[in-house]
C-alpha cells in the first residue's frame, strides 16, 4: 500500500448491538408504545396540549430509536443519516408550507368549513 | 498501485463495493429511495391531516374518527409490526454470523408478522366498509384515510414479497455472510415501513382532535 491509496473502510459500522441488546431496544419501543396508548386512554384526565406534545415527543423518540439502532444509522457512515434527514426535513418543510397556505392549525384542527375542496358538509 | 483503491481485508464478507463514499451503490440507492419515499408519505399524511375532521361529511353520522377507530386492535397491529423490526434485525445479525438457518427462520418470522399486520388492515378496512358504511369515496376523510393506510399496506406487502423472495431465491446459493448486504437492504426497507407506521399510528390514530 502506498500513501496515496484510497482506503475504503467498510467496517466502521461493525459496533452493532448484540442480539440481546436488540431485544432490549425492542422492549423499550414496546414500552414507549404502551405509554402512548395510556396517554390516549387517559386523555380526558390530562391537559390536551400535554397529550399532543407527549405523543409527538414519543413518536420522535421511537422514530429515532428505529432509525439509529435497527437501521444502523448510528453506526453507519454519517452521509446516510444526512441523506435520510435531508429527505425527512424536505418533506416536513414542504408540507408545513403547504398546510400553512391552507391556514391549517394542527393544534386547533381547524380545517372544517375553511373552504377546502370537499371540506365541510 | 499508487492510485488503487484498497478495501479492507474483510469487505468481501459483506458484499460491499469499493466506492468513493465507502458505501456500496446498492445501499446508497436504497437510502436515496427511502429518503424520497419520505416525500410520498409526507404528502399523504398532510392530506389526511387537512381532512381529518371531515368524517361526518355526506351524512355519515360520525362526529369524530374516534367513533370508528378500534384503538386496542390497531395498537396490537402496531405492536406486531414493531416486533417484526426486531425479527428482521435478528435475521441480519444471524446472516452476519453466517448462521443461515437462524437467518431464514427470523426472516420468515418477519414475513409472517407482516402478513398478520396486513390481515389486520384488511379486517379494519372491511369493518369500516361493512359495519360503518365508509367507502373509499364516501367523503374526503375516507379517501384520505384509505389512500394513506392503503399505500402503507402496499409497502408492507412489497416488503413481504422481498423477504420471501430473499428466503426462497437463495435456496441454492445459500444465505450466508456473502448475502449480508442483500438482507441489509431488505431490512432497511422493512424498518422504513415500520418507521412510517410509527408516525401514522401516532398522528392518525392517537393524537386527539381539537
Description:
The complex is a heterodimer of chains A (121) and B (210). Chain A has 121 residues and is mostly helical. Chain A folds into two domains: 17-75; 77-115, no CATH class. Chain A contains three helices and one strand. Chain B has a single domain, classed as Cytochrome c oxidase, subunit III, four-helix bundle (Four Helix Bundle (Hemerythrin (Met), subunit A), Up-down Bundle). Chain B is 67% helix and 1% strand. Chain B has helices at 25-51, 71-96, 100-130, 140-169, 180-206; one strand at 5-7. Chain B is elongated, with a radius of gyration of 21 Å. The interface between A and B is large, with 71 and 76 residues. Strand 1 of chain A pairs parallel with strand 1 of chain B.
Q: State the total count of DSSP E strands of chain A.
A: 1
Approximate helicity band of chain B:
55-70%
Uncertain segments of chain B: 1-15
Would you count the extended β strands of chain B for me? 1
Report the C-alpha radius of gyration of chain A, rounded: 21 Å
Instruction: Determine Rg of chain B (CA atoms, Å).
Output: 21 Å
Give the termini separation of chain A. Answer: 73 Å
SSE class of chain A: mainly alpha
Kindly give the count of domains of chain A: 2
- Look at the structure and give the mean pLDDT of chain A: 79
Relative strand content of chain A: under 5%
Low-confidence blocks of residues of chain A: 1-13
User: What structural category do the secondary elements of chain B indicate?
Assistant: mainly alpha
